[in-house]
Amino acid sequence: MLKEFKKFIMTGNVIDLAVAVILAGAVSLVVKGFVADIMMPIVGHFSGGLDFADLKFVLSEAVVDANGNITTPENAIRYGKWINSIINLITVGFVLFMMVKSYNKTKKPKEEAPKAPEGPTDNQLLTEIRDLMKK
């Protein structure tokens, strides 16, 4: 059983998958940083200094006691975070599109295999055999 597991783990597909998962995690961190630290400030600047993460629709205000402690937290629909997620999705999709597009440009186009010369069809062969048998 241990040998089977070792054989399974050492196959190329499992190693490729492990590398892909690790790279996906690293790319995710880079893209999230790009979106949060570069794109969102630009979007916020052009939207009048608005930070989308702060946008919300308050359903019920937070309840604060006399000491200033929050006894019941605010209940709100935070649609600004959802807008950030949409912008993040579009940015990640675009970055991945550009990566795949540039990768595809580096690959050599596949050369078509030379076509086998077309020979006689089955009917033609049977006709020849029949004619030879008649002789």
In short:
The chain is mainly α and 135 residues long. The chain has helices at 2-9, 12-46, 79-106, 122-134, and strands spanning 57-60, 63-64, 70-72, 75-77. The strands form two sheets. The protein has a two-stranded antiparallel ribbon. It has a two-stranded antiparallel ribbon with strand order 2-3.
Q: How does this model look, in words?
A:
By secondary structure, this protein is mostly helical. The protein has one domain (2-107): Non-ribosomal Peptide Synthetase Peptidyl Carrier Protein, Chain A (Orthogonal Bundle), CATH 1.10.1200. Helices cover 62% and strands 9% of the residues. It contains four helices and four strands. The chain has helices at residues 2-9, 12-46, 79-106, 122-134; strands at residues 57-60, 63-64, 70-72, 75-77. Strands 1-4 form a two-stranded antiparallel ribbon. A two-stranded antiparallel sheet has the order 2-3. Strand 2 (63-64) and strand 3 (70-72) form a beta hairpin. Helix 2 crosses helix 3. The longest helix has 35 residues, at 12-46. The chain is elongated, with a radius of gyration of 32 Å. The model has no long low-confidence stretch (mean pLDDT 81).
Question: What's the SSE blueprint?
Answer:
Blueprint: H1 2-9, H2 12-46, E1 57-60, E2 63-64, E3 70-72, E4 75-77, H3 79-106, H4 122-134
Antiparallel strand pairs: 1-4, 2-3
